[in-house]
């Protein structure tokens, strides 16, 4: 395939390229741009962070799991390309003056994350740097440097890159679906085609398992699936909405869900990963499905011109098996507007960049002290994301009271038989699920809960 993109302001044309090759390999091995480091090679450490630009967005992304097919038609900036007219970028200068570079290995990725954060007006540096690991542990001078360089105008190269994307007519040339209709038509012809959205899973198949993923296609030009629309009774979320855009939207409509998404991996992964991919991979420990199940979400699956809708929880049949037929793909997610009571809890060993041991989500509606609706869903408690139906039945119609919460204590094992693994034991998971209902109840009364106190 022929792939074209901008690299530090220069038009790069790759003829007969392998679109599944990683950008990191191209940068280091073919272009000699070794400032972008290979650390973990799985999107965890951030040493390979680059900035990817299109007409609407500036994204820090992990080059180690970013495939060449995903940067077609876009502009890429590496650490070598963020300075202006031979001078350091203000972030680079501030890192030096504040002694923010220790051994230096992770420093280029840190700088790229901070440059992108500045361009996106992200002032919470803990959020911006959650995906950049520094083994020298010297984050304090890095944060000081970021604060010093916070108020800087956008670099001229941002305007240059966007203008050149248009003037060089980079955007067409690689055959990719441009819409949901194109995806449907492709799958009718070739139902075994693998759909690549963010590649945060598939990237690891390539870098760690050296899998042959053919046949495949990239979805990053299907812009009609990147929208969140407000409808009469639902929000319609396209399957290609990335998790960071989802987080920014959720922060205003459901703050607890938005906060859960803030702890979803790192900003580099959130900008790559999509809501459709997070659901379609069927992981029992993904954080989105429990929240959306508790919210009452439905999904729309499409095959050719026909569509079918089902409750999200019905999509997950058993571990590794979803209700997805040949030639069918996940097109949209519908979330009812009345989920303002949704409350999400992520229990993990680390606050940032960790997989949940338990993810519990509660959507309970109380009117005149009586429970009229209850949707409770968990991840990490079964082979699939799953509702706690026995708990829900025990709650609906009862008073919202201490006695009602106590009556649920012996019902959890009717809904869940969790396994024991490296993250938590079965007993811990069951006890934690029980405690999270207590926590939700107490917080609904305006109490501030200490997690350790609730667990005691």
Report on the structure:
This protein is α+β, with helices and mostly antiparallel strands. The protein has two domains: 175 residues, Beta-grasp domain (Ubiquitin-like (UB roll), Roll), CATH 3.10.20.30; 231 residues, Enolase-like, domain 1, CATH 3.30.390. The protein is built from 20 helices and 18 strands. It is globular.
List the helices and strands and how they pair.
Elements: E1 3-7, E2 10-14, H1 23-30, E3 49-53, E4 58-62, H2 68-71, E5 75-77, H3 90-97, H4 107-119, H5 125-128, H6 139-148, H7 156-167, H8 180-189, E6 194-196, H9 202-207, E7 216-218, E8 228-230, E9 234-238, H10 243-253, H11 255-262, H12 267-272, H13 275-280, H14 288-295, E10 298-303, E11 306-311, H15 312-315, E12 316-318, E13 321-322, E14 329-336, E15 343-347, E16 358-367, E17 370-379, E18 386-387, H16 389-395, H17 402-407, H18 412-415, H19 426-444, H20 451-455
Parallel strand pairs: 1-5, 6-7
Antiparallel strand pairs: 1-2, 3-4, 3-5, 8-9, 9-14, 10-11, 10-14, 12-13, 15-16, 16-17, 17-18
Helix pairs in contact: 3-6, 10-11
Alpha carbon gap, first and last residue: 59 Å
Give the domain tally. Answer: 2
What is CATH's topology name of the largest domain? Enolase-like, domain 1
CATH class descriptor name of the largest domain: Alpha Beta
Q: Helical amount among residues, as a percent range?
A: 25-40%
Cα radius of gyration in angstroms: 23 Å
Main sheet summary: 5 strands, mixed
Identify the CATH architecture of the largest domain.
2-Layer Sandwich
Q: Largest beta sheet: what is the strand line-up? A: 2-1-5-3-4
CATH homologous superfamily descriptor of the largest domain: CO dehydrogenase flavoprotein, C-terminal domain
Broad structural category: alpha+beta
Q: Helical element count?
A: 20
Query: How much of the sequence is in beta strands?
Result: 15-25%
Which regions contain 5 or more consecutive residues with pLDDT less than 50? 451-456
Structural shape: globular
Report the count of strand segments: 18
Overall average residue pLDDT: 93
């Amino acid at each position: 395939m022929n792939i074209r993109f901008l690299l530090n302001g220069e038009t790069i044309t790759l003829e007969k390229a392998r679109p599944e090759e990683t950008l990191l390999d191209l940068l280091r091995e073919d272009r000699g741009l070794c400032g972008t480091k290979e650390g973990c090679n799985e999107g965890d450490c951030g040493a390979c962070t680059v900035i990817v630009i299109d007409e609407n967005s500036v994204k820090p992304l992990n080059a180690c799991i970013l495939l060449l097919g995903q940067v077609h038609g876009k502009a890429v900036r590496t650490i070598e390309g963020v300075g202006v007219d031979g001078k350091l970028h203000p972030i680079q200068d501030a890192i030096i003056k504040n002694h923010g570079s220790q051994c230096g290995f992770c420093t280029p990725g840190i700088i790229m994350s901070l440059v992108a954060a500045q361009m996106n007006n992200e002032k919470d540096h803990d959020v911006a740097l959650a995906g950049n690991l520094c083994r020298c542990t010297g984050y304090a001078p890095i944060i000081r440097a970021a604060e010093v360089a916070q108020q800087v105008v956008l670099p001229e190269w941002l305007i240059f890159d966007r203008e050149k994307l248009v003037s060089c007519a980079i955007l067409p040339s690689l055959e990719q679906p441009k819409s949901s209709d194109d995806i449907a038509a492709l799958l009718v012809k070739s139902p075994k085609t693998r759909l690549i959205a963010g590649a945060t899973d598939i990237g690891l198949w390539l870098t760690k398992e050296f899998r042959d993923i053919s046949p495949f296609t990239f979805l990053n030009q299907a812009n009609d699936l990147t929208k969140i629309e407000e409808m009469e009774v639902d929000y319609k979320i396209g399957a290609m909405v990335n998790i960071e855009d989802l987080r920014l939207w959720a922060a205003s409509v459901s703050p607890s869900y938005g906060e859960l998404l803030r702890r979803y991996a790192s900003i580099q992964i959130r900008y790559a990963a999509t809501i459709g991919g997070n659901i379609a991979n069927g992981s029992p420990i993904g954080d989105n499905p429990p929240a959306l199940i508790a919210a009452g979400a439905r999904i729309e699956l499409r095959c050719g011109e026909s569509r079918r809708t089902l409750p999200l929880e019905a999509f997950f049949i058993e571990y590794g098996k979803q209700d997805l037929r040949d030639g069918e793909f996940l097109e949209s997610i519908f979330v009812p507007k009345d989920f303002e009571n949704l409350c999400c809890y992520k229990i993990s060993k680390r606050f940032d960049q960790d997989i949940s041991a338990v993810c519990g989500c509660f959507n309970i509606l109380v009117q005149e002290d009586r429970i009229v609706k209850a949707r409770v869903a968990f991840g990490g408690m079964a082979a699939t994301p799953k509702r706690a139906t026995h708990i829900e039945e025990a709650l609906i119609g009862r008073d919202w009271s201490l006695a009602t919460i106590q009556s649920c204590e012996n019902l959890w094992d009717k809904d869940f038989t969790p396994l024991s693994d490296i993250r938590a034991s079965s007993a811990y998971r069951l006890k934690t699920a029980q405690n999270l209902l207590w926590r939700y109840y107490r917080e609904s009364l305006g109490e501030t809960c200490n997690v350790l106190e609730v667990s005691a």
